[in-house]
Amino acid sequence: SLEEQLYRPYYHFTPKVGWMNDPNGMFYYNGYYHLFYQHYPKDNIWGPMHWGHAISTDLVQWKHLPIAMYPDDLGYIFSGSAVVDYDNTSGFGKDGKIPIVAMYTYHDPKKGDAGQLDAQTQAIAYSLDEGNSWTKYEGNPVIDNPGIRDFRDPKVIWDQERGQWVMILAADFEMMIYTSKNLKDWTLADRFGKDVGSHEGVWECPDFFPMQVEGSDDVKWVMLGSISGGAPNGGNGTQYFIGDFDGQKFTMDKNFEEALAKKHDFWVDFGKDNYAGVTWSNIPPQDGRKIFIGWIVDGHYANKVPTTTWRSTQSLPRTVKLISDNGIPRITFQPVKEITNYIGKKSKKDHVSIGVDQETVLSDGDFDFSKAQIQYSIASLKDKGYTFKLSNNKGEELLFGYDGTKNQFFVDRRKSGKVDFHKEFADKVSIGPRLSDKDLHDADILLDKTSIEIFFDNGETSMTEIFFPSAPYSKLSVVSENGDLVLDHLEISQLKFN
Ligand code: FRU
């Protein structure tokens, strides 16, 4: 159908049919990256939640598997995580089979509809066949609800240093950290965040993991938290906090805390469309990456986007890094390197002079920008800016670039194609601050039929947005503002999929 041709992404994960929201339960085992997701198979809007399931050997091409978990008497299967229990701490392993244990939230719709506060509880399920089939634990729920309306989305990690499981839960506008020895019995160890960060929405889908600071031996703990309102450009977003964890208590890093108090620019992504993102469990140590994936739409218009047979897309998986930016810890994101295995033809240009206020065409008809990567660098901008334009022969255009007078990046999808399905979809230009103070500007940009993911400055500022053009963009041009500039390097790569 036309919708499949125009809107079904080439390499971003979408459900075959029905509704999808958050990525859930991602783990790596025996050659496969597993991805589960919030799924309602019977309609293209949110409904009784299941866990859909897909696998990949390279994080780029996905294979659909049967639904992993269905709602039951305890409720809908809300978001959660999964871990490989190598030491069989849970005792679910049998005959030498290693159990995979998933921890998720039950949302009991009867209680929820009746306005009861205790509708959400935490539960576990296990698989003895590498994630194909799941058995829900007969002792569920493993954590009862203490009377908190929003009490959900457990993310579990093995705390190597202390030999314990650590789990983080979003609960009533803060985080709750639990520990366990066996994944069944959980003890509340700490609460964090009541007075920190943004509280303009409900806290959801947390993550919590240690990372080494690039170029040092320091290890810090990174806490991600999605929030259903108050993101930099409005709507849903994901903020983060960095600090230390002693096995019980999380304490913010001093420099981080000071920087956050001055200016809250600690967001995973500054585009409108990246939510509920969390990281993979059990990536082998010899690989060593932290790999993140997010749901790329905003909750405000997710049930209105112009696809009918399926709804929503996951981001391209991204590698997370922890850097020290003049002593302030920050995380950066880069597209996983596996995407480069799909590069076909390439064009490279060096030292392209761009006259001020003139549109310079960089490519016209040579590339299909519905599956492409664009990379560029510009050595010296000062207060100059630039605007890249992707366009098609229908007069539709997607703009992105940098405003040197304000030191900020932007994405403008106001004329990108179909935009009238929701008033918040294209009412404004999205803005992202430049966080790097390097002289060199660079960007790595991934395009699929309906999405752009921009990693400015090696991923210090990321921006993800979706769009719905009536024909693929086939032309790329650039305009320089406030003076001539030189595009030091430009690379356009065609991505190829069979
Ligand atoms: C986030 C969220 C989660 C919840 C799930 C329900 O988008 O609200 O907090 O578990 O979706 O589908």
From TrEMBL:
Residue ranges constituting the Glycosyl hydrolase family 32 C-terminal domain according to the UniProt record: 343-493
NADP is among the record's keywords: no
UniProt source species: Flagellimonas pelagia
GO biological process: sucrose catabolic process
Swiss-Prot/TrEMBL keywords: Glycosidase, Hydrolase
PANTHER family xrefs: EXOINULINASE INUD (AFU_ORTHOLOGUE AFUA_5G00480) (PTHR42800)
Taxonomy, superkingdom: Bacteria
GO CC field: cytoplasm
Name the record gives this protein: Glycoside hydrolase family 32 protein
Family: Belongs to the glycosyl hydrolase 32 family.
Listed GO MF terms: sucrose alpha-glucosidase activity
Domain Glycosyl hydrolase family 32 N-terminal: 12-324
